[in-house]
Amino acid sequence: MLRPMLLGATIIAGLSCTAAFAQVPPADQPPGNGNATVPPAEPAPPADAYAPPSPNAAQAPGVNAANIPDGPPAEPSEATPMVEQVTANPAHDDWPGYGRDDRATRFSPLDQITPSNISHLKRAFIYHTGSKPGPGQVNKWAAETTPIKVGDGLYMCSALNDMMRIDPATGKEIWHFHANEKYESIPYTAACKAVVYYTSSTVPEGEHCHHRILEATLDERLIEVDSEDGKVCEGFGWHGMVNLMKGMGESVPGFVAETAPPPIVNGAIITNQEILDGQRRWAPSGVIRGYDAETGRFLWAWDVNRPHEHGEPKEGEHYSRGTPNSWAAMIGDNALGLVYVPTGNSAADYYSAMRSPEENKVSSAVVAIDVKTGEPRWVFQTVHKDVWDYDIGSQPTLMDFTKPDGSTVPALIMPTKRGQTFVLDRRTGDPVLPVEERPAPSPGMVPGDTRSPTQPWSVGMPRLGFAPLKESDMWGMSPIDQLYCRLKYRRAHYVGEFTPPSIDKPWLEYPGYNGGSDWGSVAYDEKTGILIANWNNTPMYDQLVSRKKADKLGLMPVDDPNYKPGGGGAEGAGAMAETPYGIVVSPFWDEYTGMMCNRPPYGMITAIDMHTQKVLWQHPLGSARANGPFGLPTHLPLNIGTPNNGGPVITAGGLIFVAATTDNMIHAFDIHTGKEVWNDVLPGGGQATPMTYEYKGKQYVAIMAGGHHFMMTPVTDDLVVYALDNVN
What we know:
- With 728 residues, the protein is mainly β.
- It has one domain (107-724): Methanol Dehydrogenase, Chain A.
- 5% of the residues lie in helices and 27% in strands.
- The protein is built from five helices and 41 strands.
- Strand 21 (397-402) and strand 22 (408-414) form a beta hairpin.
């Protein structure tokens, strides 16, 4: 009877979302001391030992999927002046942008649904986007979509970039634009976070493409269509499209992709791109670019290693390779003429010796770029010399911060994977709340790759995280499992946060690269000053391996002819070609039971009073119903806290709506007490941010239940929309 008793007593304590990390097979566990083919004393090779590809290296067929002609290289220019957009002062009934408004607050003034009547919230309709894996296709789907609503149109994109308009009350499809994305163009994830609504300043009201819907695609296109009929805007780019692979140099389909909605700031569309992690040092560029929202004309580029060259690369050149990319949703300030770019680290995430000083200054940072010129105005770095994949995945939120003397500062809230939340003056990048440089483990354990002696800590904000791991924190569904995790803990190198990478043994990364806040970001109510954040608590177990060992493990970059799916990708093991090392990354778990080695909770939700910077309430987010050992659901409704990705929204009705969790549910909380007042089981994983709108007197709540391959939640093409059943 011992094991059943232990199972019942500890299944919740040791419960894991295998869902969160199941893309990493047990065979990818760090190989341990047998890997030490590079003696610790061996110096790292010089930076020029691994040369970048020729500027004339061709792009593989299918990279420019629409065969858009490039034309000659363009010089910098300025955007066509724009009219005020709907996100500047959203209509009471609408949700016109990804974060609802120009500040990305994710706050709605709607108050029809309240804690007292939410028991009447029922499904109003389900809309099917038509995008999910086909026969024989490896599941890479993770829609992450938040619809937008303007007037009588609900607009959204599918995981493969089809755009559609549907009736807000019935879900009836009004038009459907087929982007014709190919499966081969999917990078790590098939995702489209949102479309963008744009009103033209040159096309008169009532004419085609006065109001437009814009998206950036997985195969690197900008596309604009008319909001009324879904037909392309012929005056934009080449038949409604712009080729974003122009100037990028050598690449293959799926290496570079756009998943976030590009902001439009003072008439300039600002684009960033996801570069597939873990591939090679000389991956395609992380360049940030501006395009005219009216015409698609190139405006400028910010290219880290070509800092003062803002035009397109000359013939026979390309944007500088391997530079920090940005894949999160950006946001702009029209009054200041700035766009705020959350960056990641340079290519070859876990090895920094080959990075330029320019790259080291702007990696894992917020960079404010002048939208007229492409010049950075200021930089605030959240991690120095990042080798932990602490790229910023969250969209910044803008606010007016009230100082103790009553004056206000135009501020920016930047959540991070570390659980550090930085509050900055968005004019200058200076911290509004205190930030300290604290000692960090250094100089490091990799020859020639020194670590920063200090790292920034936001001491003025509550941390979204827990204390450093201890051996006594190890858990399992039996004493044997707990012992196994204790042995893994002892085997690894761990000296707290920012434990340096190591070659001769694994190291523990805590917070992990899916810790803190990721693409869901936060929600903020300006009237009450309440900030809501849901976040993760999931360590990783990493190890650098020699190039010889990486080859033996079959780690090849995606553009290598010998590459095979599962042989290194955006997460897990990676080739890091053109460097001395490969990387093996896995969850810190018992790979036999699929349970995390650290004690739960693995996901949390927190309410913070931004007037006092104090936690109002905090508790685990996500139940055990769809999670358990060996990947088997327990069906237990216990709130143990699961990994979660996808953000919260706040309503004036006193509610928080959030899905995100691996229990495949959408949850509603009373914002004042933190009590869960409603939930519903979704047909798939809700790894997206919900939204809410009103139409003909009725408030609706919508969530894309598309699931997520990384979280291993069920994949569907279902947009689920709710309304009160007692309101006509």
